[in-house]
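A note from the maintainers: we've had questions about how concatenated examples are separated. There is no special marker in the raw files; a new sequence line simply starts the next protein. For clarity in this README we add a label.
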Amino acid sequence: MRILHNAVIHTLNKSQPLASALVIDHGEVVRVGGGELLSEFHGGERQDLQGHVVLPGLIDAHLHLKHYALSLQKIDCETDGLDACLSRVAERALKAAAGEWILGHGWNHNVWGGWPCAADLDRIAPHQPVFLTAKSLHAAWANSAALRLAHINADSSDPKDGTIQRDARGDPTGILLESAAMLVSRLIPEPGVDELVAALDKAQSILWTLGLTGVHDFDGPDCFMALQALQAEGRLKLRVTKSIPVELLAQACELGLSTGFGNDWLRIGLVKAFMDGALGPRTAAMFQAYAGEPDNRGVLVLDAEQLFELGRRAARSGLGMAVHAIGDRANHEALDAFEHLREYESENGLPHLRHRIEHVQLLHAADAARFARLNITASMQPIHATSDMLMAERYWG
């Protein structure tokens, strides 16, 4: 038993918003109050917090845990200008062996005032393949060495739901949008489970310093395996709600998995599906064309009927849905699907699960009230407001 006292404790309980002491027993808060707890509870360890503030642990409701953990080893490309990013890549290239992959993350061409290109990277890293993911994770920037390894050239076709950006002559520029990025990323050696365990262990210690005690993770099964290994070793100290990629929905249903299965540290969350791309690379699915791009209305990965079929199958197994939707059309289609899914749940005596739309960045005015009516969580990330509001003004029209 531990008693923390002489603190400013924010309880988030409206009937008792502040306290000065709390009692912890077997990992749970059992009492919150004032100095009377010191006389009421005997024999426990006492810790004088000397007036410091205590807050409940924060939960990041949308995190790519594997990606974040591995990004700590990558070049930080989130710079104010192209030259600063190139300088960081050049520094890494000097230390890398010929043929070694140079990886980075975080660039944003909207901040830089235009798209970068492969030639920018070729000048500083001609002998190593370079692959840098955008801050949105919906675009990637590769140099010529990486494009050659992926056999991407003027004759290459765009993959489904992806675009190889090209110059006026039809040659690839080095920018790969949406699924086109996988043409290169699939060539990069994947870390083993042991390596990923070590990366996650380091990452969770950084997350603690930010006040995060829980996360909702949207990475794949290898991350799940590493999290289970961490838990088995008693080293997992983040409470993780783990999503299931929609590509594995059939396997999850066959196994009988359901949302909430697990324990206090690691449990099954929702099935993650994608309706569209992102606003930065202008692949979010829109009702009207992007300003200045009359032929571009983004990429609609799923329509309402397709999402409903996925949701119906998930609901039969007790699995909720978390659906990425950024553009106004993508959100509209997702809400149409959830409206049918709510009807299906009611007609078949199934529980109304806590389905979510992730991001909800651009929304048609007629759709706003539907979230409340259908009891669908608008899982928004506040950082998108500041990072994308100028893009919304510029491109939404």
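[label: protein 2]
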Amino acid sequence: MPSRPSEFARLALEVAHADPRRARQLATAVLSTVGGDQVSRALAEHALGLAAKEFLDLDRATTHLRRAIRGSLKAGEPFVAAQARTSLCFVLLSRGQTGAALREADRAAAVLRGQEAGQLHMRRALILQRLGRLDEALEGYRRAIQVFRRANDEVWEARVLCNRGVLHGYRMEFAAAERDLSRSSHLARRHGQKLAATQVHHNLGFVAARRGDVPTALRRFDAAEQEHRALGLSDWVGMVD
């Protein structure tokens, strides 16, 4: 078990996507004990922002992530701030603030390298996808997948494949969509990423709907809804679809 606030904060970040409730508990504990350690405080705020995003509280997520950025910069840690910007750009995208999301992505790009740059490639590609710039988005996902496969990082590879599978669905490339999403689901479940696997299940329903297979789409949406409820979360996107 971690013994220092910084270790607890980093653990909270690691589990935020898979178990947002635990991430919130860990990060809250860090903030109550960390004192003047600005870096640990910033990491905890980042984890709280990610957890809030999973609970669909975008206002709270934005507040925590901006605190993480300010705290990191105050501590002289631009790399930690850039990591938080990478998460913030996705939250801003979810709020419909695509211009602000791209600006945060560009600020982070000036700092990040390696796997963190791969994460940013993925997030920026998603912004471009939402803007309808599908060819640019596809190239961004390709670059991200290259980074994660070189690093043998299957958790982040699964996340990119999930997003790219949806993009293929929008392009009516159904075989490619099913292939990416099936691979994403396999990797997510292999690494215990329950929430990620549930989101893939939902996206498989989206692809079936785009293909015109309504019974399969509804079965997949029902399964994803049940899996979300088991995790204590709401599948609001599934309800819309």
